[in-house]
From TrEMBL:
The keyword Isomerase does not apply. The lineage of its organism: Eukaryota, Metazoa, Chordata, Craniata, Vertebrata. One of its GO terms (cellular component) is endoplasmic reticulum membrane. Plays a key role in early steps of protein N-linked glycosylation by being involved in the conversion of polyprenol into dolichol. Acts as a polyprenal reductase that mediates the reduction of polyprenal into dolichal in a NADP-dependent mechanism. Dolichols are required for the synthesis of dolichol-linked monosaccharides and the oligosaccharide precursor used for N-glycosylation. Also able to convert testosterone (T) into 5-alpha-dihydrotestosterone (DHT). It is found in: Endoplasmic reticulum membrane. The chain crosses the membrane at residues 13-32, 72-96, 158-176, 188-209, 253-279. This is Polyprenal reductase. PANTHER family: DFG10 PROTEIN (PTHR14624), POLYPRENOL REDUCTASE (PTHR14624:SF0).
Length: 311
């Protein structure tokens, strides 16, 4: 994968814009939260919060019209499994059956990257691995939403819901955009690099951390038999929770960094995705951290919000 100039493609501009938006939202929250304002402030908070961080928000009734259940998170992962599974199958056909990709897909990639399709393009091992890992990640998260996590009556904004739906569609296309602009050559296995191994190792470690964190959160609401006993929020302990309030968010960042390594560390497009995830998860973690500190007087003060020993 080659490093392309900033602003050279629509997909880079899109991810850069999203990263900037969440950075500004994070800064605005840090400043604006000092004031008990109404109107625009409440709309802003309604749009950035979901789940437990939203339950005690003093909102006007008209804002509640746009609430949808947080448990609908599984829709995002179900869509990702189907959509990214389709893109993976199309890429496998491109590699092993030498079938050209559909015109609608190549046309979309040309618009997003600004790079015309070239005949005889060599399949990229990095792209195949990232597609596969992204699909595995989506499948795991879907199964966790359905069979591990215990959702309360938390909600999210309808805008957040549609954003999540669009996010996983664009994410799958972004993987192929990095492939579309790639310059790798040679047989597939000859492209194997130590960064592929490093990225895969980090992906496994981060996935295990995220799964462990979600299991610990679920156990706060279940008994020894596994049956749900309460939907109340409690202080989590154990695992990554001994260092940060949201280790599952930190693990999400590590997963995206691992995919950047699988891309060889040279895909500017994917690093912009990582930047977006950093600011997005930082905001979500800060909101959770603030809630824990305000709600529980005995909450461990040494815990950071998101990144161990840093933030």
């Amino acid at each position: 994968m080659s490093w392309s100039p900033v602003g050279s493609s629509l997909i880079d501009v899109l991810w850069g814009f999203l990263a900037l938006c969440f950075l500004l939202a994070f800064c605005a929250h840090k400043v604006w939260s000092r004031y008990e304002a109404r109107g625009l402030y409440m709309l802003f908070q309604d749009l950035i919060r979901y789940g437990k961080t939203k339950q005690n928000l003093k909102r006007d009734e008209w804002l509640r019209v746009f609430d949808v259940p947080k448990r609908w998170f599984w829709h995002f992962y179900a869509l990702s499994v189907c959509w990214n599974g389709l893109l993976l199958l199309l890429y496998l056909n491109f590699i092993f059956q030498h079938q050209s990709r559909p015109s609608w897909l190549t046309g979309t990639l040309e618009v997003l990257t600004g790079v015309p399709s070239a005949d005889g393009q060599v399949p990229q091992l990095s792209t195949l691995l990232v597609q596969l890992l992204l699909w595995v990640h989506s499948l795991r998260r879907l199964l966790e939403c359905l069979f591990v996590s215990v959702f309360s009556g938390g909600s999210m904004h309808l805008v957040q819901y549609f954003f999540g739906v669009g996010y996983y569609i664009v994410l799958g296309l972004t993987v192929l955009c990095s492939d579309h602009m790639g310059k790798g050559s040679g047989p597939l296995l000859s492209q194997l690099h130590w960064l592929h191994v490093a990225g895969f190792t980090l992906f496994i470690a981060a996935s295990l951390l995220q799964h462990q964190s979600l299991v610990l959160l679920a156990r706060l609401r279940t008994g020894k038999s596994g049956a749900v006993e309460t939907l109340a929020h409690r202080v989590p302990h154990g695992g990554g929770f001994e260092l940060v309030s949201c280790p599952h968010y930190f693990a999400e960042l590590l997963i995206y960094i691992s995919l950047a390594l699988v891309f060889g560390g040279l895909s500017l497009t994917w690093w912009l995705v990582v930047l977006y995830v950093l600011f997005n998860q930082s905001l979500a973690a800060q909101l959770c951290h603030d809630l824990y500190i305000s709600k529980y007087e005995s909450y461990p003060r040494h815990r950071k919000a998101f990144i161990p020993f840093v933030f």
